[in-house]
Specification:
The structure holds two protein chains of two kinds.
Chain A: H1 5-23, H2 28-62, H3 68-86, H4 112-130, H5 132-143, H6 149-164, H7 167-173, H8 187-222
Chain B: H1 10-26, H2 37-48, E1 54-60, H3 66-82, E2 86-91, H4 96-111, E3 121-126, H5 131-139, H6 141-144, E4 171-176, H7 182-190, E5 198-203, H8 208-211, E6 221-224, H9 225-239, H10 246-252, H11 255-290
Parallel strand pairs in B: 1-2, 1-4, 2-3, 4-5, 5-6
Classes of the chains: A mainly alpha, B alpha/beta.
């Protein structure tokens, strides 16, 4: 009973309170309390995430599965950053309270935590993101083929957006007067037409569909019809 | 020969892409940009807010998207400070605070040294909870943020001492790389009080399709990718130059324009590769037909 009824009751009550809070100012403070609980749970989820990270990687190392060395590096990095942050290793003394323990700042590059973030984590993350350009170029060459009408439309749209997103757009068609009858041939005009009319219309349809789906799912959860989030046991 | 192009070693493509990015960076290639309607709308939104207003800047991204969003953040902060706005920094992403700290150090304190912490700007930092953070702030900011990022009570900081809810801001700007970000600010903040404040955003190129339905009715301004940053930088630096440090301002608020050079060459390479790939496909078919 505890495993199923209590979570269902908490979910239904929270959902109903949040709905009520939207419509009735009298219940606003109730909604705020529920949101406060949610935010605390979201913070606790980080601890669960760390626990999961430990479990998965330790299992990988102990069973010597392929790539276990990467798991070891992950754990070493995890514990190093955790130690630097929690213990404030090498923290810059607080100007107002220099003698108070743990009062110093640890986020500047002068401390190991800040240094690791600034000179290791940040460049590595940016590098991972930048590598996308290489894979996208390779994929564009191999997969972007004009095989049918749909792919030709997609190719044409891609060319317009790729050119209009740079100075090339203005260089190629910027000489066409904006007020003339041929303004529709300007790449910036075409880009606006594609993004604001075709793309936005499509996105609105998807958004409304998602919203209706969210409403339906939320109602099923609040009313206790959908119990898939509960433990199977 | 054309048909063989289809089987080209992809390392040649990687090399071409590497050169197309490296050469414009090394040669410092810059191309003229013409501010588009979205950049102008963003600029006008900040201009239309009375001088000295309290504004909220949410840094909803991490170093992975800094290439696109940091130039926008720098320009928005300089613009707000030039207008004398009181700036409240916060983040919906765990590393957003660090991103904001970089802008505070490189732009706010560099070009606006009179800005005092607690009086003219404040750093609230990151809070877990995604859209729930925004929803709670819509009605009760002190319940969400009882202290600033350093632990000082909000009541002790003049800039936020009387801050009760999001409607106490005149403008909210989200620098957004995905979820949670600008979309959540529109859905949960703007919908709670549509007339109280303006919402603007700076977003990555891949996120723009999600945000377009909200522009311009619910989101008055929107900067899209590096091009949006470059256009906005031009508008801001033209109206608010630095008399004391013009070269440094041109460098710090010129990153968007610097990045447009590699982007142009990379885009042209992509178009070339797509054409080449299709030529190889057609040639391969013709060869197969001839046999």
């Amino acid at each position: 009973m505890l495993q199923r009824t209590v979570p269902m009751a908490i979910l239904s009550l929270s959902g109903l309170i949040l709905m009520l809070a939207y419509f009735s100012p009298m219940t606003t403070s109730w909604g705020e309390t529920v949101l406060d609980w949610f935010n605390i749970l979201a913070a606790v989820a980080f601890v669960l995430g760390a626990g999961n990270l430990l479990a998965v990687n330790l299992e990988k190392i102990s069973s010597r599965r392929a790539g276990w060395a990467y798991a070891a590096i992950t754990l070493i990095a995890f514990f190093l950053m955790l130690g630097f942050g929690l213990l404030k290793v090498g923290a810059v003394p607080n100007a107002e309270h220099p003698t108070v323990a743990f009062a110093g700042g640890y986020e500047t590059a002068a401390s190991p935590f800040g240094w690791t973030y600034e000179y290791i984590f940040s460049p590595l993350t940016a590098t991972m993101f930048a590598m996308l350009a290489f894979y996208v170029a390779s994929a564009a060459f191999r997969a972007f083929r004009a095989k049918n009408i749909e792919s030709i439309l997609l190719l044409g749209t891609a060319f317009i957006i790729l050119l209009a997103q740079t100075a090339a757009g203005m260089f190629l068609t910027g000489w066409i007067p904006e007020e003339s009858a041929f303004a529709f041939l300007r790449l910036d005009w075409m880009k606006v037409a594609i993004t604001e009319h075709i793309q936005t219309a499509g996105m609105r349809a998807i958004t409304i569909g998602i919203a209706l789906g969210v409403v339906a799912t939320s109602l099923r959860l609040i009313l206790g019809i959908d119990k898939s989030y509960l433990s199977k046991s | 020969m054309l048909a063989r192009l289809g089987g080209i070693d992809r390392r040649w493509i990687f090399l071409a892409m590497g050169l197309s990015i490296a050469v414009p960076i090394l040669l410092k290639l810059r191309f003229p940009e013409v501010p588009g309607p979205m950049a102008k709308a963003t600029f006008n939104a900040i201009e239309s807010v009375p001088e000295g207003s309290r504004v909220l800047l949410s840094f909803d991204y991490d170093p992975g998207s800094a290439g696109e969003l940091q130039p926008m953040a720098n320009a928005i902060v300089h613009h707000c400070a030039a207008r004398g706005h009181k700036i409240v920094f916060m983040a919906l992403w765990p590393l957003g605070k660090q991103m904001a700290e970089g802008t505070i150090k490189d732009v706010l304190l560099e070009f606006h040294p009179t800005y005092t912490y607690g009086k003219d700007y404040v750093q609230l930092g990151y809070k877990a909870g995604n859209e729930a953070v925004v929803k709670l702030m819509a009605t009760n900011v002190p319940q969400q943020y009882s202290t600033d990022a350093a632990g000082a009570a909000l009541a002790s900081l003049p800039i936020v001492a009387d801050l009760a809810k999001l409607a106490d801001f005149k403008l909210i700007a989200s620098l957004s790389a995905g979820y949670p970000g600008a979309k959540e600010w529109v859905q949960y903040a703007n919908s709670a009080d549509p007339e109280a404040f303006k919402v603007i955003s700076g977003s990555t190129g891949v996120q723009v399709s999600q945000l377009l339905p909200y522009y311009p009715a619910q989101m008055e301004g929107m900067l899209v990718a590096v091009k949006g940053a470059a256009e906005y930088e031009m508008l801001v630096t033209a109206k608010y130059p630095s008399s004391e440090k013009p070269a440094l301002l041109a460098e710090r608020l010129g990153q968007g324009r610097v990045r447009m050079g590699p982007q142009l060459v990379a885009h042209l390479l992509m178009i070339g590769l797509i054409i080449l790939g299709n030529v190889a496909m057609v040639a391969g078919r013709a060869r197969g037909g001839a046999r």
